[in-house]
Amino acid sequence: MTGIPGGTVAVSAPAKINLSLGVGPRRADGYHSLATVYQAVGLYDQVTVHDADEVTVAMRAESRLPVADVPTDATNIAVRAALLLAEHHGLDRGAAIEIDKGIPVAGGMAGGSADGAATLLACDTLWGLHSPREELVELAAELGSDVPFALLGGTAIGSGRGEVVTPLMTSGEYWWVVLESDRGLSTPEVYAEFDAMSGGHVSAPEITDALLHALRGHDVADLGAALSNDLQPAALRLRPELGTALEQGRLESAFGAILSGSGPSCLFLCEGRSHATAVAAGLGAQGLGPVSFAPGPVHGARVVARSTDEAG
């Protein structure tokens, strides 16, 4: 592989959480209809791309984030993102992709989707394409349901299978403690358990007025009471010990406790940074798993460094 000097772009993209995750019937395409409220939180993956003859990917992560099971072949979402962007623009371009993981792997926080979004933006910048954001969002939807939101960030309503994203105006900042698990939880397995538990008989998903009012008024207590996740019972049936972790977070004074997406990461809503620090310390003392905390909402994917040679 021969690199072309001067071409490097780095993009960060955030983790996502679901403040509300309503799951409806399975659609004809195999996906479930969703009504969800996303929020981007301050845990990030960083994707760095360099000019190269072909598309490749390499992973780096802290020891707490095992990446051995993350594919580095053509099935990796970052590779698919680069190839999709090149095909869309009729280009024959390569990129050496390096991913620095800061988002839990298989933790229900859309780390893979963040990588896909970051790669789209990074390659678009590296190759000097200047694609409109709306165009990148359309490509993101082809990669996965959570990828468009990873591009946009903030707080938003997701519909369809989650890929239709409508920004939601909120007030103030929220702090979340994240309790990670030492092993992931397969999203398809959780959905299969959801289907088995419901017998396929579920209503159209909805977002409650209580949640929207809490976000508009920045009422932490009301937001904690309004958090909901239709996948949580299925995930807890597969991993009952997560219920103990959620209860421990409530005992540590969190305003709300919920699984992130399909799990297994547990989220605990706090009133501010100092409260989050205290809750994280209490959970850490229990030895339940790695603990971190982060604010939300934060920006979506954005360029954080670049050294480009568009003529190359």
Characteristics of this structure?
disordered N terminus, single chain, four-stranded antiparallel beta sheet, alpha+beta, 312 residues, globular
Instruction: Report the portion of residues in β strands.
Output: 25-35%
What oligomeric state is this? single chain
Number of strands: 12
Count up the helices. 10
Q: What structural class is derived from the secondary structure elements?
A: alpha+beta
Compute the separation of the termini in Å: 15 Å
As a percent range, the share of helical residues equals 25-40%
Radius of gyration, whole Å = 19 Å
Order of helices and strands: EEEHEHHHEEEHHHEHHEEHEE
Largest sheet: 8 strands, mixed
Give the low-pLDDT segments. 1-5
How confident overall, as mean pLDDT? 92
What shape does the CA trace take? globular
Description:
The strands form two sheets. Strands 1, 2, 3, 4, 5, 6, 8 and 12 form an eight-stranded mixed beta sheet that branches. It is globular and about 55 Å long. The protein has 312 residues and is α+β, with helices and mostly antiparallel strands. The chain has helices at residues 77-88, 111-126, 133-143, 147-152, 187-198, 209-217, 220-226, 232-238, 241-251, 273-285; strands at 8-26, 32-52, 55-61, 94-101, 155-159, 164-167, 174-179, 228-229, 256-259, 266-270, 291-296, 302-307. Helix 1 packs parallel to helix 2 (111-126), helix 1 crosses helix 3 (133-143) and helix 6 runs antiparallel to helix 7. It is built from ten helices and twelve strands.
